[in-house]
Structures are given as C-alpha cells and as structure tokens.
Design goal:
single chain, about 300 residues, alpha/beta, 10-stranded mixed β-sheet, 3-stranded mixed β-sheet, 11 helices, 13 strands, about 35% helix, globular
C-alpha cells in the first residue's frame, strides 16, 4: 500500500512541476502549489542535521520554494502542530490516538511517509574503560541504580528519552539520574569533559560530527549495545552503523516520518515527495542513515561492435 502512495505522490510532483511554471499571479503575489511558496516545518531537534541538509537541497532545486525549518524537542513539536503553528512535522513516531483526534474532528487525513531509519546512540568519555553496555545496565542508569553515572539528554522533552522509556516499558525514571542540555552538540561537549557521563543522542547528530571532523570525536566514543532480541547467530554487542541499522541487529533503531497535515495540496506534499523520492533517499544514504527505500542504481550498458 505504501508503494502506491509514494507513486501517487511522485505523480503529483510531476504535475506540480508544470503548475509551478506560473511563478506569479496577476496581482504580483507568488502562486502557491506543491513546489512553490513558503512552508514552516516542525522538526524533532534530534533529526535536525539530516532534515536541514535535505531542505537545503530542495530549496536549491526549486528556487520558488522556501522552507522554514523549526527544530523543537519532540513534545514541543507535537504541541506546536496541535496549535496550528505548522502543518508539516518530522518525528520519530506517529501521533497517538488522542493527538490524532484533533485532526479527525476537522476532517484532515494526514499523509504519512517513512523517510529513513535512525538510531538512539549512547556515548561516553574515551578516558573511561567501558566500551560496551548491556540493556539491563541502560535501564538501571535510567532508574538511578548505577552509582556515579548520569545520563545526559539534549532536552527533558527529547524523543531519545521517550524512546528509551518506551523501549524498556518504564512509566517513571529517576530525575536525579539524568540531566538535559540545550541540544545534541552540547551533549557531546558535556560528555567530552565528564568521565562519569553517558550521553544519549540521535545517530545523525554523531554522523554530522564525523562529517565536520569535530575535535570532540577525540574525546568521546559510541558504546556497543547488547542486542538481546537478536537470534542466536547474531547475539552480541553492536555499535550503531548503517549496516547494523539496516540488518536490524542494533537494538535502538527508530523510524523517521514526515507527516503532512495540510488540508490542501501545498508545498508539504512536494517536500514529502522529495524526501521519499530518489534524490531525498540518496541524501539519507550518503549521510550514513538507512533510507526507507533504497535508491536505484543507474547502469549504462554500451553495445559496441568492432570490425576486424
């Protein structure tokens, strides 16, 4: 079913390309369609690097479009969506039934597409001896039962914290066992300076640090996490990577969704089609995450005849 939804979106983009030729109306105002106009996009701040990069490419490809990327902690992003601050949001979860009810009452059916698979990553200071951690110990950290250790999140309303609570089916955590920073980069900086800290960030933030050749990488490492649900032939500890996410052996994998609640055919549909289309999926692949659909490979075959 998802396959056909993507095809419909891509057909819409093709039609929108013809419509977008009309850059301005007679009154001098910009026309708006799926490739033209301005669009605020709420983004879970743990996903900011990959979405910002995609938005930059989209805007350069369609100069009549303007995307306002608004990074927020997950809870605040959802609240902003429900308060009509924007109608397009990128999250690592779908809205729950209570949240969806707001749009159902207004007769708005969302267009939801998975863009990629990301991961929740644990990092520590290289001065410590630990390079692996069991899931039991991760839960104990959240419960405050590992003395001398503290988990550092990008925000108290972060999707990474919500993910771990859901993963371990925890209703409460020990507030003294965690601390919140301003963003994921601040988490990495804090961990680089504190040996007793375990940082929790999105994998795409770590990849961004690698791309920038950040000096923080000399002081932090990603921890290998125990994969308790893997089969006997794959049991063990795994670092986050494109291959361990794609194979499903890294335990803390999370989907990335773009959800469009625009009541009409607007720029949100065009951006969704771009993210889930070949170019958007290539950006995901190149960034080191796992695309929702693997981009096709173009193979040129030449038929050459030789006369002896």
């Amino acid at each position: 079913m998802r396959k056909y939804s993507v095809i419909l979106v891509m057909l819409s983009v093709g039609l929108g390309g013809m419509v977008s030729c009309k850059n301005r109306t007679k009154s001098g105002k910009e026309s708006e369609d799926i490739l033209t106009g301005k669009l605020p996009v709420l983004v879970d701040q743990t996903l900011l690097p990959i979405i910002q990069e995609s938005a930059d490419v989209f805007e350069s490809s369609y100069p009549n479009s303007s995307l306002e990327i608004m990074p927020r902690p997950e809870i605040k992003a959802v609240n902003a969506l429900l308060s009509d601050s924007a109608y397009v949001v990128v999250l690592t979860r779908k809205l729950n039934n209570q949240e969806e009810a707001y749009f159902n009452k207004r007769g708005i059916q969302p267009k939801i597409f998975q863009v990629a698979s990301d991961a929740v990553v644990l990092i520590n200071n290289r001065s410590t001896a630990d390079t692996i951690v069991s899931q039991k110990d991760v839960k104990s950290l959240l419960e405050g039962r590992l003395a001398g250790k503290r988990m550092i999140f990008d925000n108290a309303n972060s999707s990474t914290l919500r993910y771990l609570k859901d993963h371990f089916n925890m209703e409460k955590i020990d507030p003294k066992a965690i601390a919140a920073m301003k963003d994921s980069e601040e988490v990495m900086k804090y961990v680089s300076e504190n040996a007793n800290a375990v940082g929790v960030i999105g994998y795409n933030w770590y990849l961004k640090a690698v791309e920038k050749n950040s000096q923080l990488l000399d002081k932090i490492r990603t921890l290998s996490i125990e994969s308790v649900s893997a089969g006997a032939d794959k049991a063990g500890f795994y670092k986050p990577s494109q291959s361990t996410i794609a194979d499903g052996v890294y335990p803390f994998i999370r989907p990335v969704y773009i959800m469009n609640y625009q009541p009409n055919m607007g720029l949100g549909l065009g951006f969704s089609a771009f993210l889930t289309g070949d170019r958007g999926q290539r950006i995901v692949l190149k960034a080191g995450l796992v695309p929702a659909t693997m981009p096709g490979r173009e193979i040129i075959i030449r038929d050459e005849s030789y006369i002896n």
